[in-house]
Amino acid sequence: MAKVTFNTDLCKGCSLCVSACPKHIIQLAKDKINAKGHSPAEITDQQACIGCAFCATMCPDCVITVEK
Amino acid sequence: MSEKVLMKGNEAIAEAAIKAGCRFYFGYPITPQTEIAAYMAKRMPKIGGTFLQAESEVSAINMVYGVAGAGYRVMTSSSSPGVSLKQEGISYIAGADLPALIVNVQRGGPGLGGIQPSQSDYFQATKGGGHGDYKLVVYAPASVQEMADYTIKAFDVADKYRLPVMLLADGTMGQMMEPVELPDAEIKEYDKSWAVRGTQMKREHNIINSLYLNPEELERTNFERFEKYALIEKEECLYEEYMVDDADVVLVAFGIASRISKNAVNEARKQGLKVGLIRPITLWPFPVEPLKKAAEHAKGFISVELSMGQMIEDVRLATECKRPVALCNRTGGMIPSPEQVLESIKKMLSEVK
Amino acid sequence: MKVFSKPQSLTDAPLHYCPGCTHGIIHRLVAEAIDELGIQGKTIGVAPVGCSVMAYNYFAVDMVEAAHGRAPAVATGLKRCMPENIIFTYQGDGDLASIGMAETVHAATRNENITIIFVNNAIYGMTGGQMAPTSLPGQVTQTSPYGRDVKTAGYPIKVSEMLSQLDAPQYIERVAVNNVKNVKNAKKAILKAFKNQVEGKGFSLIEVVSTCPTNWGLTPEKALQWVDEKMIPYYPLGVYKDKDAEGKGE
């Protein structure tokens, strides 16, 4: 099973991972603000992740680690 | 001792640099220093060194910056308009605390000026030259032998204090031929752990840099650099005194002007006039102490220069304006004659009686 | 098993770039190439003046900060005194194609064995969005407020096309990082540009069409679209010169 983790403190909330995800399971947190003051990206359905790493490929800040 | 050979000043600089362990030369053609580049082009490939004719003086000095960052002995040479172009790079080299040698075989200015000898880059060489708070150690050789000797010395001082050093010559010095002895230089090893040669995965990465966005940090690096300059002022100031002890009039001159001045002193002494000469060998640090001391007994000073009067300001500062300081000069590529200097001496003597 | 994590050749320093700026992607691709070739310990990078001026904090290799536009000259010095080391420059469009054009062209024509990563986002980012040598015709910037008028400000410089006219360079390719497919291609090109240097083949320059959401006045996602709609049509992607393919490798 694929697993995606976000180093939330580094996230700038740019959304590039959100639009890159083919399963549409990444969103910007609606109720959280990180140390930088951004709403960080988060995964909504870990089970649905296919581990394609498209999100990490488009992330400019090395926020995302993908494991399979 | 090695035997004497007849060499042009420019060639003596080049060969001395090689003796000092410099294996990297980057330059761009400009009169009257091109012999240095030509000599390096011939010699460097034969000793495993690098000669590269850069696309501009700006590029040449930045190639120097690269090699200096790696901690290897490196030099460039040019003449006045070309040295102006190099100022950006020199400021970065100073700001990143890197050792390097820059040779300026001066010609007349401003602008494109002329190709005849001049000393009108004194301000540029001794007051910083580029932007920001920094200094170069500046050597002003007065013979072909000194061109060689101070080239070797310059590399050592650059490494010792980690700063750019300038050899400030002029067209006459560069073109003149004299017998010169080129002994093998003793090359001291200095710590180069700051250099960028790859981490080899054994240490944190080194960064060669002059950018400090935090003003407190930038101020601190400037303060620290000026502590280093204070030490250099104490340790590295060089000058020659000639018949100064009883002199009523003291000439102050460097490079080619000091040779003319020495002739004038000899002629004046023949005529019974008490005249001496202080010759700064380092223009920065400027020999303040001997001038201050001379001001205790001398009645006046004459700054003999191939410019509109630049070093004269430092002479006034060093003597704290206690005595009159006159200017005896030619400019634009013209050279004062010993007779002109002698006239200045007599004029000064008649005024200070 | 990790299928994706931060490359070792990047430090842990958080990048100072604006949200969604693709500099971060390009930094990562460079670091991945260094990791994959196992050259981290002998690589030296040269940072420019511009947005990526502080790249020296981000690459976990020895770094030099160069004056504006002078990175190829600095890299030349470094390579000439350490031919066994791997030297790369990372430069923006103002740095490389405006003030540093002479250094770039001459490093290319010497086939200097270095790798240049040229980030083209058609604007000066660090100083707040002025017209760049690569700003598109009609592009509104702070210093072309009525749009770049080619009659007075001239046309954008197509660096890859121009340099590929030289006999010397080994490899010149233009890539983009605005979608996953393009990022993967960019990675391949950057890897090849470093590999060429390892193999002593000479000058490799990868022009990476990048974004500047902040100064383009677009969201990061819209900026990626703008690359597709405006940038790539003017700056077509592809290999502009590859001596290997020409059978002229040195």
Largest interface, C-beta within 8 A: B-C, 40 and 35 residues
Helix content of chain C: 25-40%
Indicate the CATH class of the largest domain in chain B: Alpha Beta
CATH topology annotation of the largest domain in chain B? Rossmann fold
The structural class of chain C is: alpha/beta
Low-pLDDT parts of chain B are none
Number of helices of chain C: 10
Number of domains of chain B: 2
For the record, what is the CATH homologous superfamily label of the largest domain in chain B?
Answer: Thiamin diphosphate (ThDP)-binding fold, Pyr/PP domains
The CATH homologous superfamily of chain C corresponds to Thiamin diphosphate (ThDP)-binding fold, Pyr/PP domains
Low-confidence stretches of chain C: none
State the helical fraction of chain B.
Answer: 40-55%
Q: Compute the average pLDDT of chain C.
A: 97
| N-to-C series of helices and strands of chain C | EHEEHEHHEHHEHEHHEH
Radius of gyration of chain B: 21 Å
If you average the pLDDT of chain B, what whole number results? 97
How many distinct beta strands of chain B? 15
Write down the CATH class of chain C.
Answer: Alpha Beta
Task: Write a structural description.
Chain A has helices at residues 16-20, 54-58; strands spanning 3-6, 26-28, 41-43, 64-67. With 68 residues, chain A is α+β, with helices and mostly antiparallel strands. Chain A has one domain (3-67): Alpha-Beta Plaits (2-Layer Sandwich). In chain A, the strands form two sheets. Chain A has a two-stranded antiparallel ribbon. The longest helix of chain A is centred in the first third of the chain and has 5 residues, at 16-20. The mean pLDDT of chain A is 96. With 353 residues, chain B is of the alpha/beta class. Chain B folds into two domains: 4-198 and 208-235, Rossmann fold (3-Layer(aba) Sandwich), CATH 3.40.50.970; 239-352, Rossmann fold. Chain B has twelve helices and 15 strands. In chain B, strand 2, helix 2 (34-43) and strand 3 (50-53) form a beta-alpha-beta unit. In chain B, helix 1 (9-19) crosses helix 2 (34-43), helix 1 runs parallel beside helix 6 and helix 3 (57-69) runs parallel beside helix 4 (80-95). The radius of gyration of chain B is 21 Å and the shape is globular. The model of chain B has no long low-confidence stretch (mean pLDDT 97). Chain C is of the alpha/beta class and 250 residues long. Chain C is globular, with a radius of gyration of 17 Å. Chain C has helices at residues 23-37, 71-81, 93-99, 101-109, 150-153, 159-163, 180-198, 213-216, 220-234, 243-246, and strands spanning 2-4, 43-47, 62-65, 86-92, 115-120, 171-176, 204-209, 238-242. The relative contact order of chain C is 0.15. In chain C, helix 3 (93-99) packs across helix 4. Chain C has a single domain (23-246), classed as Thiamin diphosphate (ThDP)-binding fold, Pyr/PP domains (Rossmann fold). At the B-C interface, helix 3, helix 4 and strand 9 of B face strand 2, strand 3, helix 2 and helix 4 of C. Strand 4 of chain A pairs antiparallel with strand 1 of chain C.
